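Async update (no meeting this week)

Hi team, since we skipped the sync, here's where things stand on the single-chain job. The sequence we agreed to prioritize is pasted below, unchanged from the tracker. I ran it this morning and attached the output directly underneath so nobody has to dig for it. Comments welcome in thread, and please keep replies under the output.
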Amino acid sequence: MLKYCSFAVFSVACLSCCFLLHCRDTQIAGVNVPYSDSSFNSVTSTNLTSSCNSHCPCQEAYYIPVCGPEEVTYFSACQAGCTEVNYFVQPTVYSNCSCFPNSTDEAVDGRCPSPCSTRSAFLALSFFMVMFTFSIFTPMLVSTFRIVPESLRSFALGLEYLFYRALGTIPGPNLYGAFIDATCLLWQETSCGDRGFCWTYNNRNMALTFLYLSVVGNGLSALLFLVGSFTYKPMYVAECSTDMDTVQLSTDSDKDGNKKSKGHTNYPSYDGNLYENAKLNEDCTKL
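Output:
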């Protein structure tokens, strides 16, 4: 079961390559593509203001995108320099936009469509990722039951879930949230000057971030499961003779680290644990 857990999480690490099948980023003027009147071919920092819309008192607290020519999205019609609007058509059309290459070009409500041909492949690979991830929970639980003595199983499960909560569910969302925030391209600027929501993300950076996290985390888990499978040894093995007079208990080692084997006749007290002897008596009777 431990070897299967190692194989499953290693498979998840390999299937994490599906994160590379990300969709193309939406081109947003002033964010990841320059304005048409800009003399620069690239954008080094987010700046929604340009010479074409500097005369407009545009707000940046709410993201109301419009799609302009050449599949470039503008933060709002104001940032596109549009001065005329036609509400009688759907979607709403904006015209006379100073930030467009041609004065006759128009913009429509909403972001420009970003076709993504890798979605089907991503969903197929992510399905197997989820399947392998959840398939290890039952083997992990049964392995815990077999590793610890029966009298300590409840305590072992409680301790195990304590580590899950303390090391996983408490810092996990904060760490993942920080990684996701690091890939943000455009933040909301509130009227108080504080940072609000993230309007759009860098798809490539987010995909690489989740790829690295998945490969490192699942690779380490696979290694630990594999080490556990080779270092695990049963606590004892009960061997019953045919005449039912002797029970051999093969234990791991004594306090000095030496292998030992104890023979007990007529089921005497095994280290003072009467329950274990009763259990061995029952098992041998069944044999």
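Quick observations from my side:
Confidence is low (pLDDT under 50) at residues 241-257, 259-275.
The CA atoms of residues 5 and 136 lie 5 Å apart.
Reply here if anything looks off.
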